[in-house]
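Data card: per-record layout.
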Amino acid sequence: MMDKWLDIPKDRRRLPVGRLCLIMGLTVLLLLAVAGRKVTVVADLGFAALFG
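The structure for this 52-residue chain is written out next.
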């Protein structure tokens, strides 16, 4: 038997599909930007260690 706090209320409105896709897309772009910045920083540090 599931806990009561895990149940979805019957009168809850669903999130529109367009808004859900927009939120997911922006989240992916944010994660790619953060990952790209980390790769750039690591590459710069490696370059500085080799040639600095």
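Known properties of this structure: Residues 17-51 form the longest helix (35 residues). The chain has a mean pLDDT of 80.

See the next section for split statistics.
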